[in-house]
Structure formats: structure tokens, C-alpha cells
Write a structure and sequence with these properties.
The complex is a heterodimer of chains A (about 260) and B (about 375). Chain A has about 260 residues and is of the alpha/beta class. Chain A has helices spanning about 40-55, 70-80, 100-110, 130-140, 195-200, 210-215, 250-260, and strands spanning about 1-5, 10, 20, 30, 35-40, 60-65, 85-90, 115-120, 145-155, 160-165, 170-175, 180, 205-210. The relative contact order of chain A is 0.16. Chain B has about 375 residues and is an alpha+beta fold. Chain B contains 11 helices and 10 strands. Chain B has helices spanning about 10-25, 30-35, 40-50, 65-80, 80-100, 105-115, 230-265, 280-305, 310-335, 345-360, 365-375; strands spanning about 120-125, 140-145, 145-160, 165-170, 180-185, 190-195, 205-220, 220-225, 270, 270-275. In chain B, strands 1, 2, 3, 4, 5, 6, 7 and 8 form an 8-stranded mixed sheet that branches. A two-stranded antiparallel sheet of chain B has the order 9-10. Classes of the chains: A alpha/beta (about 260), B alpha+beta (about 375). Flavin-adenine dinucleotide binds next to strand 1, strand 3 and helix 11 of chain B.
């Protein structure tokens, strides 16, 4: 059996981004009333695991670190078809940066024990660091491939994947266990089904606090976070419109010059 | 204390239905509007998403989730497409008489395929001579040995041209007080779908006529007791038919409000979004009040239905209220849009047309008041 752990994050619904505010003092997200949803790219990670489960003997564990409400998104992943859920939940985990998050998740993964593949979304829609996946790999001392857009071969002990590059891709072969972070090009995530929700009734979510992980309080949450956000500023994006006149050739010449002037060409 | 909150699971059902509607129904709305035809893809998607299985018991291949879950699903689907919600609601109306009054043999024969969407259903009561007054129907049955021979026509039947498993209400040729409901299916000769209606709204939901000519039906297809068919069809229409229309109306109320809020926030007049104008806020508030009230009526009736209690009176109140409210909401939504509300690119024009089709289905508002009046005076 292949043991896959999918790491998922509860993020404020990106559809309600206009209602998300940033606390000017702590420089963290103020959740307000914005509902928590599964981080969009983590849905691609879930889908990758579910597609493998349709073909092979696969056990999927879902792992999340977050507030008690994040239990709902773990449940949602169970309804999508994961076998088991784990929520790392403790006030001490609060305020974690990418490193402290990766550290806590890695401890959770070690406690789960059996793992061959760890799949994460490439980034979260709220933090967007893209660091958590690679940092988990570093802490567990296993290989990582980021930005996976296609799983070419998924053998029992090694995977071949295509990882996105700006103008192409890298074809990588990796020995398992390994961490993969995935892009939205990998697949189209399935939607929840009513029967999946019914099946999730009997699936369990294990909740672990800091004492269950056996790690010191200084290593997790805000205290365990080496990153400090020193300044935040918002940028204003302005649009300008200009109507180009003249013959087709003149227009093209003007446009090329204009694009060169603004540094696009 | 009364708990008015949805369970975590019900919230997940809502999410599932809303994701389904947005990914599998929304992309087909424009095409359905243009052609007025049922989208095969939407029907297929409904089946794959197990939407027809909601009210079918687990023993017969369904999900056995009951009526609150169904109301949630209809509300979310109707928010995207009233036509699709209507089609789905009538699938359940076709399923219910078999669940309530069918023999075990009939249940085994039809329910598993209906749950998967391999078969599609409807219930046909209305005729030119009897809508609000179903006793006025003329489609007749006559006994011939163990079989029944049926002749007549039905009109305004939802899913008429796509359904292959249909419960038809018929009247005895000999005694106008006796009625029978039969389940007929595609394998029987002697019936066909004839005229297709072009409705002002709910385009993409099929409505039309059925004709029966010496249709021979074996006794095993009878639902409930011989002669007591009126009760069989009215029981299903009273709860499931009316309840379904309530789900459709609620979804439309939500859509009207959402579209109005969006427009009101985007449309700038006097240097500000029109949502700053008291007159606009007033309309939005009215829409919200009626949506909240409608939801309470709807989900209370559905909760009673889930408990196995009689809910047809409560659904009559809910249907009256939500269908009227949806019409008002659609008019207000169009009004808020000003001139844009007359242009077909704007969804509110569809909402207005759809809202007018909600009224008659499963009983007009007048008939709801007749029922409620009877309830009050009983
Ligand atoms: C989109 C759509 C889908 C439908 N789907 C189905 C279906 O799947 N199966 C099916 O069997 N039928 C279906 N119907 C038919 C529907 O049930 C009837 O249209 C409805 O019952 C009204 O009947 P009628 O059209 O004959 O109107 P009438 O009964 O002729 O009503 C005319 C007017 O008289 C009023 N009226 C009638 N009786 C009374 C009374 N006692 N007191 C006060 N006012 C009264 C009515 O409110 C209405 O204003 C559908 C209708 C529509 C529009």
C-alpha cells in the first residue's frame, strides 16, 4: 500500500478577498467573518491523491494545522475521499510563519508514521510563500519537487514528474519518500458529492495538541517563527488607456515603441 | 429550545450543491436560454452527482437523505438555474408516488435506475379540463381482465419529453369518483409525448403534452389502491411538489438579491455607488426580509416532512410566500438595474421571466390560499 499524506490549509475564502483585512500592528490576517475554505491549490493536491487511489492501493491521510474550525476543511477532504484526518490544533501553534508551520506539520507527519508521498499545494492563497512544502522536506530530510504539473509515472518506490518552469518544464525522477508541491495545471479538482459526505460520517479526525507532538513551545507558533514582517504597504495599480490612430503599419510601429518605452519589450 | 442552525453535514451538502451548480450547471445556462431545450449534459451531470437519489431510500439504491437536504440542493441549484432546479424537483415528484405507494416489486423495478439517473421521471395530473381541479380530468381507465386500458391527454407536464417513467392520474370510465395512478414506462406501447411548450421562462426545462391511446397497463403498475388514485398523486404533490417549488423560489430569491447587491455596488451615480441611496437600500432590505422569512417557512416545513409528519399545509404557506416573494424580488432586481434591467445580457431579465413560471406549478397562489383557508377553518 502507498501511504500518501496531503497537507491542507484552511484559508479565508479567496472569493471574499475584499472583506479580508490585515492587522496593521501584528501584520497578520484578520479573519473577521470570512469563512474558511480549503486552500485552492491543496484541492489539486487532494485530487492527485484521489486519482491515484482510484488506480492503486492507496491510503490517504489529510493533515492540517489550524484553529478548531479547520476541522471542517479536514472533514471536507474526508468527504472527497481521504481515509483519515489529522488536525494539529493548539493555541501555541498560532501566529506561525512558514518555517514554524512546516516544523509542526513535519512533527505531525512523523507521528502519523507511515508515509511514502507527501503532497502539498504549491502555495497558499493567503500566505503565498511557497516555502512550507520544501521546508517540510528539509526537516524530514527527504527530496522535494516543487511546482509539479504532471505525474508521469507513479511507481511504488520512485515517481517521475514534470515540474513547471517559466518557459517549459523539468522532468524529474525522485525516490520515495518525497514531498511534491503541485500547481493548478496538474488536474481539475472534483467537487464534493452527497454520498462522499455520507461516507465521511464514519471517518475520524484525530486532533493533536502541542503535548501530543512532544515539541517545546519555543519551536512552534509565533515563538518558533524566525520571519518577522517588518513592514507592509499597499500598492495602487493604475490603468491608462490610449487610442492609437493611423494606418495599420503606423499603429503597429507606435505600439512596439510604446511597449519598448514601458519596458515590456 | 428550537435549534435553527444547519448541521455541519447540512452545510457541507450546501457546499456540494453549490459547487455542483457552479461547475456543472452554470456553463450551460446561456445555451438553455437560447434554445429552450433541455441540456443533455446537465441531465447527465445531475445523475452523476446523485441529485436524483436524494429522496430515494438506501434500500433501493438511493441516498435516503430526505427533504431538508433536498431543499438545500434545490435552493443552490435554482440560484444558478431555476430551469434546472425545476427539472430536478419534478424528477423527485415522479419518484415520490413510487416510494410512497408503489409495491415492493415496482420499487425494485424503477427506483435504482431512477436514483442513478438512468431513468427519468415525472408525475402527470394536469389536463386541459383540470388543473386546479384535478377531478375534472378526462383521461380514463377501463378494466380489461387484469389489465387497465387508458385513453386521454395530459398538458403542462414537466419533463414530458425526457421522462420514461411517468405516474399518470386517470379516472374511471364508469365512476367519476374513482381514480387510479399508474406508473407507465418507455417499454409500453400506446403513449407518446406530443406538443412541446415554449415557456416565457425556465427555458431549458421541458414542459409538454402526453397522449395515451389504448394504453394497456398491467395491474402490477398500479400505485396504491384501485380507485384511490387522487390521494396517491395529491399526497406527493402536496409535500414533494410544493416543497420542490419552494426550493426553486428560494434559489431565485437569493439570485435576485445577489445580482442586485452586485449591480448596486458597481453602478455609480452622483459620484457614489447607488447602494448608498436609501431607495435602493430599501429594496435590498425588503428582498432580504422576504428571503429570511421564506427560508424559515421552507426549512421548517422540510423538517416536519423529514420527521414523517404531515407538512402539506406548512408547504402551502411556504409556497405561497416564497413564490410571491420571488416574483417581487425579480421585479425589484430589474428595477434596481434601471435600463440595464431590460437588456437580455443581464441575468435579472431571466429571473423576471422565471419568476412568473413558479406560480402555477404544483398549485397557484390562489389554490395555496384555498388550502390555507381550509387549514385555518378546520
Ligand atoms: C411550468 C409548469 C410546469 C408544470 N408541471 C406539471 C407537471 O409536471 N405535472 C402536472 O400534472 N401539472 C403540471 N403543471 C400544471 C399546473 O399544476 C397547473 O397549471 C396548475 O395546477 C393550475 O392549473 P391550470 O393551469 O389549469 O389553471 P386553472 O386551474 O384553470 O386556473 C385558472 C385561474 O383560476 C384560479 N383558480 C382555480 N381554482 C380556484 C379556486 N378554487 N379558488 C380561487 N381561484 C381559483 C387559479 O388560481 C388561476 O388564477 C405545470 C404547470 C406549469 C406552468
Amino acid at each position: 500500500m502507498l501511504n500518501i499524506i496531503v497537507c491542507v490549509k484552511a484559508v479565508p475564502d479567496p472569493k471574499e478577498a475584499c472583506n479580508i483585512k490585515i492587522d496593521p500592528h501584528s501584520k497578520t490576517l484578520m479573519r473577521c467573518d470570512v469563512p474558511l475554505v480549503v486552500n485552492p491549490l491543496d484541492k489539486n493536491a487532494m485530487e492527485a491523491a484521489l486519482q491515484l487511489k482510484e488506480q492503486f492501493d492507496v491510503h490517504i491521510s489529510v493533515l492540517s494545522m489550524g484553529p478548531p474550525e479547520a476541522g471542517n476543511i479536514v472533514k471536507e477532504c474526508l468527504a472527497l475521499g481521504a481515509d483519515q484526518g489529522f488536525l494539529l490544533c493548539d493555541p501555541a501553534f498560532g501566529g506561525a510563519d512558514a518555517y514554524a508551520t512546516a516544523f509542526t506539520l513535519a512533527k505531525g507527519i512523523e507521528k502519523i508514521g507511515a508515509y511514502d508521498v507527501i503532497i502539498c499545494g504549491m502555495a497558499s492563497s493567503d500566505g503565498s510563500t511557497e516555502w512550507v512544502g520544501p521546508e517540510i522536506a528539509a526537516i524530514l530530510n527527504i527530496p522535494v519537487v516543487t511546482m509539479v504539473k504532471e505525474i508521469v509515472e507513479s511507481d511504488r518506490d520512485r515517481w517521475k514528474v514534470k515540474a513547471s518552469l517559466e518557459n517549459g518544464y523539468r522532468l524529474m525522477q525522485v525516490k520515495l519518500p518525497a514531498v511534491f508541491t503541485v500547481t493548478r495545471d496538474l488536474n481539475t479538482p472534483r467537487t464534493l458529492s452527497f454520498s462522499g459526505i455520507i461516507k465521511a460520517r464514519t471517518k475520524e479526525i484525530t486532533r493533536w495538541a502541542i503535548s501530543d507532538l512532544g515539541v517545546p513551545a519555543e519551536a512552534v507558533g509565533l515563538k518558533g517563527s524566525p520571519t518577522i514582517v517588518s513592514e507592509l504597504s499597499s500598492t495602487e495599480s493604475k490603468r491608462e488607456a490610449e487610442i492609437i490612430a493611423g494606418t495599420r503599419e503606423e499603429k503597429a510601429e507606435f505600439l512596439v515603441q510604446k511597449l519598448a518605452d514601458v519596458g515590456v519589450l | 429550545m428550537i435549534d435553527f442552525t444547519f448541521t455541519e453535514e447540512q452545510e457541507m451538502f450546501r457546499k456540494a450543491a453549490s459547487e455542483f451548480a457552479e461547475t456543472s450547471v452554470a456553463p450551460h445556462v446561456a445555451e438553455m436560454e437560447k434554445t429552450g431545450e433541455v441540456s443533455d449534459e446537465v441531465v447527465k451531470a445531475l445523475g452523476e452527482a446523485e441529485m436524483m437519489a436524494l429522496t430515494i431510500p438506501e434500500d433501493f439504491g438511493g441516498l435516503g437523505l430526505g427533504y431538508t437536504a433536498r431543499m438545500i440542493a434545490l435552493e443552490e441549484i435554482s440560484r444558478i438555474s431555476v430551469a434546472t432546479a425545476m427539472m430536478l424537483q419534478v424528477f423527485a415528484l415522479g419518484i415520490e408516488p413510487i416510494v410512497q405507494s408503489g409495491s415492493d416489486e415496482l420499487k425494485k423495478k424503477y427506483l435504482p435506475a431512477l436514483a442513478k439517473g438512468e431513468r427519468l421521471s415525472t408525475t402527470a395530473v394536469t389536463e386541459a379540463t383540470g388543473g386546479s381541479d384535478p377531478t375534472g380530468i378526462r383521461t380514463s381507465y377501463k378494466k380489461d381482465g387484469d389489465d387497465f386500458i387508458v385513453n386521454g391527454r395530459k398538458c403542462f407536464i414537466t419533463n414530458s419529453h425526457i421522462a420514461d417513467t411517468i405516474n399518470i392520474l386517470t379516472k374511471s370510465e364508469d365512476d367519476p369518483k374513482l381514480f387510479c395512478v399508474f406508473t407507465i414506462d418507455r417499454d409500453m406501447d400506446g403513449w407518446r409525448a406530443t406538443h412541446k411548450e415554449h415557456k416565457v421562462g425556465m427555458r431549458g426545462c421541458n414542459t409538454g403534452e402526453l397522449a395515451f391511446e389504448n394504453l394497456r397497463i398491467p395491474k402490477s403498475q398500479l400505485l396504491g389502491e384501485e380507485g384511490k388514485g387522487l390521494r396517491v398523486s395529491m399526497a406527493a404533490i402536496g409535500d414533494v411538489g410544493r416543497g420542490g417549488m419552494v426550493g426553486c423560489a428560494l434559489g431565485l430569491q437569493v439570485a435576485c438579491l445577489e445580482e442586485s447587491v452586485k449591480f448596486a455596488n458597481e453602478r455609480i451615480l452622483y459620484g457614489k455607488p447607488i447602494s448608498a441611496l436609501p431607495a435602493i437600500q430599501n429594496k435590498l432590505a425588503e428582498m432580504k426580509i422576504e428571503l429570511e422569512a421564506g427560508r424559515l417557512l421552507a426549512y421548517r416545513a422540510a423538517a416536519l416532512q423529514d420527521k414523517g409528519q404531515r407538512s402539506s399545509n406548512e408547504f402551502a404557506v411556504a409556497k405561497y410566500f416564497t413564490c410571491e416573494a420571488a416574483q417581487k424580488a425579480a421585479k425589484m432586481a430589474v428595477d434596481i438595474h434601471g435600463g440595464y434591467g431590460c437588456m437580455e445580457e443581464y441575468a435579472v431579465t431571466r429571473f423576471l421571466r422565471d419568476s412568473f413560471v413558479l406560480g402555477p406549478s404544483a398549485g397557484t397562489s390562489d389554490i395555496m390560499k384555498v388550502i390555507i383557508g381550509r387549514w385555518v377553518l378546520a
